[in-house]
Design a protein that fits this description.
The protein folds into 3 domains: 3-56, no CATH class; 72-130, no CATH class; 140-204, no CATH class. The protein has helices at 3-14, 22-38, 43-55, 58-70, 73-86, 93-101, 110-117, 120-130, 145-151; strands at 140-143, 164-172, 183-188, 194-198, 202-204. With 211 residues, the chain is of the alpha+beta class. 17% of the residues are buried. The N and C termini lie far apart (91 Å). The longest helix is centred in the N-terminal third of the chain and has 17 residues, at 22-38.
Length: 211
Amino acid sequence: MTNEEIKSLLTSVADFIPQASAWEQGFFESVKSQFDKKHTLSVKQIETVQKIAAKFSPEALREREAWYQSFGKAQRETMLVCARYYAGSGYFRDLVEEILGKPNEFIPTPKQFKAMTENKYAMQVLENWKAKPQFPVGSLVTLRKNAAKTFAWKLSKAGSEDINALVLTTDEPILSAARGSKRYKLALVGATDIIYAEERDLKKVRKVKKC
């Protein structure tokens, strides 16, 4: 690009840079200061400025406006399921904080939404979330052997071979991307404790044979 073309690009970006992110604003101020002093920018710097300009083109602005207007209940549920999964993981930390801070108001950008909800881990979480629960509310279940060891100390009834529980809810926040990670809220039979377990930790109560 010629110096006149670079100057024209910087002038056009200056009109909407207040709407850009903090990083984009800082970058723009830096390259503008450099160009004003040295009248030159690197190819990479020019490409970055062009990317910022593309974000605020009339077409891009129309697309974003359409996204915000069409963002509805289904997208919000998907966003919240994934945000709760990522909470505490360190991934998407700032975005997760914004979402969970204003769960009924915040709308992510299309790029943010896609990044957080369309990766392989999020897609597995969403598959588990949408799957029909194997154990509906009110079902009596038994904790599988490995899971039972985790919760055995909660039982007031000692010496029980099986740890049974009553399903209270089937839509608890999913914390794992593994198969069978739909989470349940359970009331232990023979104890006063409430526990949370994944679907893969549970099985049907064994039928007792009649004598």
